[in-house]
Every structure is written in C-alpha cells, then in structure tokens.
C-alpha cells in the first residue's frame, strides 16, 4: 500500500459515521500492512471500540492513550492521541485521530502512528 491509499482510508475513518464491512475490510488490510505482527479481528468486529483498543494495546504496549470528546458535538467529537511518554513532549511520533465514532478515532490514530514509524 502507498501513503495516498492509507491517507484515504484514514480520511474515511475520520469522516464516515456508518462505515460498511467492505470499508472496514480495506482498513483491516491497511492495518495488516502497517502492523504485520499484530493480531487483528475480523472486519465485522473492527468497528467495535474494544477491538480498536486491543489493536492499539498490542501494537503499542505501555504507550499512553488519551481519549476525549463531547456528547453535544454532531461530527468529529471523539479525539484520540497515542503517545509514548505522557510526561515529556519529546515523542518521536504521535498518533492522532478524530471521528464521530470512537473506534474509528482510535484506528485513525494507530494508523497515523504506524505510518510515521514506517517512514
């Protein structure tokens, strides 16, 4: 996969409220490419927050994950940040994602971080 394809998938994660199984299948293939060592769920389960959190945990153990959001915002109200170190601002890479769906915000952050580390 090339970076433009990955960027398109991240944009879908961040802007689409109801992703189809086919769209999650594309995200699953991207995650398999970016994180070949990770145990990934099926495309049907990728939309679940627990599955997204398990991917983040397995790919980046001992990293900090920050999730924040507001229930009164219609779109893009979930924000997720993955950082290696919570106490310093010297991280080599940070994963950031936002989406109207929490699981998708987490997946976007994981994908951005994995892309940054692959570069």
Structure in words:
It is a single chain. This protein is an alpha+beta fold and 119 residues long. 46% of the residues lie in helices and 14% in strands. It starts with a helix and ends with a helix. It has a three-stranded antiparallel β-sheet. The mean pLDDT is 90. It contains four helices and three strands; from the N terminus they run αααβββα. Helix 1 (3-15) runs antiparallel to helix 4 (102-118). The longest helix is centred in the last third of the chain and has 17 residues, at 102-118. It has helices at 3-15, 21-34, 49-59, 102-118, and strands at residues 64-69, 78-83, 95-99.
Q: What key phrases describe this protein's structure?
A:
46% helix; 14% strand; 3-stranded antiparallel sheet; alpha+beta; 119 residues; 4 helices
Q: Indicate the structural class.
A: alpha+beta
Distance between the termini: 13 Å
Q: How many β strands by DSSP?
A: 3
Biggest sheet strand line-up: 1-2-3
**What are the low-pLDDT stretches, counting only 5+ consecutive residues below 50?**
none
Order of helices and strands: HHHEEEH
Helix run count: 4
Strand count, sense and barrel status of the largest sheet are: 3 strands, antiparallel
Overall form: globular
Strand content: 5-15%
Helix content: 40-55%
- Kindly provide the radius of gyration, computed on alpha-carbon positions and rounded to a whole number of angstroms: 13 Å
- Which whole number gives the mean pLDDT? 90
């Amino acid at each position: 996969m090339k970076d433009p394809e990955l960027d398109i998938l991240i944009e879908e994660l961040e802007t689409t409220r109801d992703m189809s199984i086919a769209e999650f299948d594309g995200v699953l293939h991207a995650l398999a490419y970016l994180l070949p060592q990770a145990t990934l769920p099926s495309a049907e389960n990728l939309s679940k927050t627990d599955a997204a959190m398990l991917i983040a945990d397995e790919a980046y153990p001992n990293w900090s994950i920050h999730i924040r959001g507001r229930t009164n915002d219609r779109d893009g109200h979930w924000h997720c940040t993955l950082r290696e170190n919570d106490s310093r601002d010297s991280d080599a890479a940070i994963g950031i994602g936002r989406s109207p769906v929490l699981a998708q915000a987490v997946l976007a952050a994981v994908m951005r971080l994995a892309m940054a580390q692959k570069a």
